[in-house]
Amino acid sequence: MIKKEMIAMLLAGGQGSRLGVLTSNMAKPAVSFGGKYRIIDFALSNCINSGVDTVGVLTQYQPLRLNAHIGIGIPWDLDRNNGGVTVLPPYEKSAGSEWYTGTANAVYQNLEYMESYDPDYVLILSGDHIYKMDYEAMLEFHKESGAEVTLAAMPVSLEEACRFGIVLADENRRVTEFEEKPKKPRSNLASMGIYIFNWKTLREALEALADQPGLDFERHVIPYCHSKGAPLYAYEFNGYWKDVGTLSSYWEANMELIDIVPEFNLYEEYWKIYTKSEIQPPQYIAADSVVERSIIGEGSDIYGEVYNSVIGCGVYIGAGTVVRDSIIMNRTHIGAGCELNKAIVAEKAQIGDRVKLGVGEEVENEMAPQIYHHGIAVVGEKSVIPDGVTIGKNTVIFGVTATADYEGSHLAGGRSLMKAGERQ
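and the corresponding structure tokens:
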């Protein structure tokens, strides 16, 4: 192996339970975003745009879709003989198999992978954030400040600060204290879960803390380095960064892509977002269809009306159907004469004719109000909705449903319809 200055370890094993049925069959970083992308594409694209050509992707929960998407890294120019992208699942050891029990434990279990490149620096990333960031600029800051650990941090409002790990730093940006989700924050610099470690510092910390249950960077590794007197610095990031860990934040981030002047621009030449794309024909917009302020993926056939929505690839929308403020993922089929309002429809769903989705009063969801809220109607992957049914807001449907599942052809707001078995 040729020695690398900096390698990246990309944590992509999260279940993403707050995304509800969207992550029933896949890890959160594999969820579709922005019509043609998946969430993990943003961190991988940042790596190659920043000159980081060696990336270990740590997977765990439902990794099949993620593994197939990443492959050997061709879309991101990470198919390298030396370096490139390597998927690192938990594996069987002579003493038995061991699941990753925390973010830092996952990295600890792959010390051998990191050692093989003898890096000077290790970049720790999360695979479930939407942002563009030049890690090379962060590395320059790390070197110039003489840090052993650098945390990326961004200013947030003091009202929001209680949701994050908060960093307190002096005028030179040297970290003096941490507060994990403080009730009364003393700083508005929120940790983004992006770190650069000197390799020797990281290895020593991971080995010293190896027996710590649920070994985590924010709770264990960073405080350990701080207690040992290692110089810790905060690198301030002021660009767009979104944690799409909830259905409402996921919906908002997609809708922000179609603003007249989007805060997060997918179309910049100098910082492209790369993805694995299927070979698709062009999209077809029928003569009497209407499309306003929307993203329409390749291979989609639009015969109805689409307003303020993000439509994936290979989607069919029938005549007389009106889609508003919605996210429709790849290869979904929506029949004729439907009405969809503020819906998230996952991949390969089948929606019959004359279906009304996301209508009526907003009622709290009966099953998981902490997940299904903000008036969003959610349809899971490969789900089937029969002709002529009406479905309220804050609802979730998952599985192959039939007319008999809807009392009076209606599913009231706040109700959940989960069926065992899936359409192949």
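(Above: one complete record from the training split.) Residues 135-145 form the longest helix (11 residues).
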